[in-house]
Each structure stands twice: as structure tokens, then as C-alpha cells.
């Protein structure tokens, strides 16, 4: 515990929260060839590898993931949500933050229904997250 005199000399510092989605917090200035720091909700990138992987211990499935080369030069692993996808190497995708708890090192999600990532077909619930429009109701 500091004394009053110590606090007068050197006040308490606010703890700064570190971002868990590091790749979204930096851009790249290609003219000066150096990174610039600004937060953004989404980043665009190109898939370098699209594969499947298995989750951590209590779970068992084939999870679809993609290695994405972002516009800021970073390469991250992103999860492909939903059933079925048309992504392959050189597909242009958009990523958002959000980790997958049972996949180690996966801190980003690919946004469905944006750029080359198509929406999930025949999706009826939580459509917004999977890039699917509301189905047309047949007129009587």
C-alpha cells in the first residue's frame, strides 16, 4: 500500500486493456511502408489455405478454417461459420473478431455473405449472422 506522499509524487496509472483481436487494430501504410494503428471492426484478406481441423478434447468434429493474408500484411487463422462454404485458395474474404473456444489459435471469424464468402443456403434462423436474406413468402 503506497503512502499519501508516494501517491502525490507518482499517481496511480489506469490499466489499459489489451485487444484480443490484434490484427484488427493495425493497418498498413504502403507509401511509407510501415504499420499504422487504428481499430477497425472488419478487415479484408485473401485466403492462402482452406482446411479442416479437429477441436480440443471433449468435443469432436471437423471444423472448417482458413488461413487469411490480410491487407495489413498479417496472416491469421479464421473460422468459417455455418454449414457448407465455397471458399478456396485466393478467395477474397472479410474477417471480424471473435474467437472459437475449442480451436487453438483461432481468434477471428469470416463474415458470411460478404465478398467471396457466400451466405448459408436454406438458413431460416439467425440469418443475419450467416448472410442469408429473408425468404419470399408465397402470395395466396
Q: What is the CA-atom radius of gyration, in angstroms?
A: 21 Å
Strands ordered across the widest β-sheet: 3-4-5-7-6
User: Mean pLDDT across all residues, rounded?
Assistant: 91
Report the structural category. Answer: mainly beta
What is the CA-CA span between the terminal residues? Answer: 75 Å
Helix fraction bin: under 10%
Shape: elongated
Number of contiguous helices: 1
How is this structure best described in words?
The N and C termini lie far apart (75 Å). Strand 1 (26-29) and strand 2 form a beta hairpin. The protein is built from 1 helix and 7 strands; from the N terminus they run αβββββββ. The radius of gyration is 21 Å and the shape is elongated. With 140 residues, it is mainly beta.
Q: What topology emerges from the helices and strands here?
A:
Blueprint (H helix, E strand, L loop, with lengths): L3 H6 L16 E4 L4 E4 L4 E12 L9 E8 L4 E5 L12 E6 L10 E3 L30
Parallel strand pairs: 5-7
Antiparallel strand pairs: 1-2, 3-4, 3-6, 4-5, 6-7
Amino acid at each position: 500500500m503506497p503512502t499519501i506522499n508516494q501517491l502525490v509524487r507518482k499517481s496511480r496509472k489506469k490499466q489499459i486493456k489489451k485487444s484480443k483481436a490484434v490484427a484488427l487494430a493495425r493497418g498498413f501504410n504502403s507509401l511509407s511502408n510501415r504499420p499504422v494503428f487504428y481499430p477497425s471492426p472488419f478487415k479484408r484478406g485473401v485466403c492462402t489455405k482452406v482446411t479442416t481441423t479437429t477441436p480440443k478434447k471433449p468435443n469432436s468434429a471437423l471444423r472448417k478454417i482458413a488461413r487469411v493474408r490480410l491487407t495489413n500484411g498479417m496472416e491469421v487463422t479464421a473460422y468459417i461459420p455455418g454449414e457448407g462454404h465455397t471458399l478456396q485458395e485466393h478467395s477474397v474474404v472479410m474477417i471480424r473478431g471473435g474467437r472459437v473456444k475449442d480451436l487453438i489459435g483461432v481468434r477471428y471469424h469470416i463474415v458470411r455473405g460478404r465478398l467471396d464468402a457466400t451466405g448459408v443456403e436454406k438458413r431460416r434462423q439467425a440469418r443475419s449472422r450467416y448472410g442469408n436474406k429473408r425468404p419470399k413468402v408465397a402470395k395466396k
